[in-house]
Design goal:
mainly alpha; 2 domains; globular
C-alpha cells in the first residue's frame, strides 16, 4: 500500500507529514495518549475484576503502555495485547482468564468504536454516508448468522465449542453485563474513541487541512476503522491508504490524507514510547535477577573454608 501510494503521489506527502511534526503537536498527542491509556487500563481492570483476575490501576497503565508500543512496532497490531494477557495471566495464576480478560476488553472497545463510527457516519457528511445503512444491515445479519452457527454447533455436543459457549455465556451474564460493570466499560470506551479522534483532528489541523470540523471527524472515523484491521505494522499502509481515499473522495486531495496520516503516525508513536522504556526496565530487572544468584553463590566456598579454619 505504501509503495502504491508513493508511486501514485510521490514522496512529497510523506515528507510533508514528517516536516509538519511540531512540539505542540507532540505534546498534545502525549497528553491525550496519557488520558486514553488510563481509560483503556481502567476498562481492562474492570473486565479483569469481573472475571476474577483483578489488577491494580497503576500496573494496568504500565502494562497497557507496553502493549501499545509493541502493537505499534510489531506486525498485526495485537502481539502487544497477547504479551499483556499472558503476563497478567501468569501473575494472576490463570492464563486462560487473563487471555479472556484482554480479549473481552479489546472486543468491547472495538464494539463501542463501531457504534460511535456508525452514528457519526449516519449524522455527518462523508463519502460513505449513503452506503452506511446497507453496511449496518449486512453486519447485523452476519453477526446473527455467526451466533446461530456457534449455538447450533455447541448444542450438537462438541466438547470444545460447548465449553467455549459456556465460558462466553458465563463471562457475559455474571461479569461484563452486570449493572455495575457494563456502564464503566462503555464510558471508558467512549472516552478512548474520543481521545484518539481528537488526536487525529489535531494532526489534521497541524498538517494544514481546512476541512469543516464535522466532515473531518467523519473522515477520521473512517480512517480509524481501517487502522484496526490486523494486517500491517502499526497501521502503516492501511491508515495512509484509507486516508488518501477518504480525503480524495471528500474533495480534499489524496496527498493531504497521506500527510495527515503520516503526521498522526509519528506523533502517536512518540506518545506510546514510554512503553519501550518500561520494556527495557523489565529486561534490566530480569537480567539482574539472573546475575544476583550466581554472585551470591561465589563466596560460599570461601565462607566454608573460613568456618573450617575457625573450627
Amino acid at each position: 500500500m505504501l509503495g502504491f501510494l508513493a508511486r501514485q503521489l510521490g514522496a512529497a506527502p510523506f515528507g510533508a507529514g514528517l516536516r509538519a511534526v511540531t512540539w505542540p503537536a507532540v505534546v498534545a498527542a502525549i497528553t491525550l495518549t496519557v488520558l486514553t491509556t488510563v481509560c483503556s487500563a481502567w476498562r481492562w481492570r474492570t473486565v479483569a475484576r469481573a472475571l476474577g483476575v483483578g489488577i491494580g490501576l497503576p500496573a494496568a497503565v504500565g502494562a497497557y503502555y507496553r502493549s501499545q508500543f509493541l502493537n505499534s512496532v510489531l506486525p498485526g497490531g495485537v502481539l502487544g495485547d497477547v504479551h499483556r494477557a499472558v503476563t497478567h495471566g501468569r501473575r494472576a495464576g490463570d492464563v486462560a482468564r487473563g487471555l479472556r480478560a484482554v480479549a473481552w476488553e479489546r472486543l468491547w472497545g472495538q464494539a463501542v468504536q463501531a457504534v460511535v463510527t456508525a452514528v457519526v457516519l449516519l449524522t455527518l457528511p462523508s463519502p460513505v454516508r449513503p452506503a452506511v445503512p446497507y453496511v449496518l444491515v449486512g453486519a447485523v445479519g452476519a453477526a446473527g448468522c455467526a451466533a446461530l452457527v456457534v449455538r447450533r454447533a455447541a448444542r450438537r455436543g462438541r466438547a470444545r465449542l460447548s465449553r467455549a459457549a459456556r465460558a462466553v455465556s458465563d463471562d457475559l451474564r455474571h461479569g461484563l453485563l452486570a449493572p455495575d460493570v457494563w456502564p464503566q466499560l462503555t464510558l471508558a470506551s467512549v472516552l478512548v474513541v474520543t481521545g484518539h479522534t481528537v488526536t487525529f483532528v489535531i494532526a489534521a489541523r497541524v498538517a494544514g487541512s481546512t476541512a469543516p470540523l464535522g466532515e473531518l471527524v467523519a473522515l477520521v472515523m473512517l480512517v480509524q476503522t481501517a487502522m484496526v484491521i490486523p494486517l500491517s505494522v502499526g497501521g502503516w499502509g492501511l491508515r495512509e491508504g484509507a486516508a488518501a481515499w477518504a480525503f480524495a473522495a471528500a474533495g480534499f486531495g489524496a496527498a493531504m490524507g497521506v500527510t495527515v496520516a503520516t503526521l498522526y503516525a509519528v506523533v502517536t508513536l512518540v506518545a506510546v514510547s514510554p512503553g519501550a522504556g518500561l520494556l527495557v526496565a523489565d529486561a534490566v530487572r530480569r537480567r539482574r535477577g539472573q546475575v544476583r544468584p550466581r554472585e551470591s553463590r561465589r563466596p560460599e566456598p570461601a565462607c566454608r573454608a573460613l568456618e573450617a579454619v575457625r573450627d
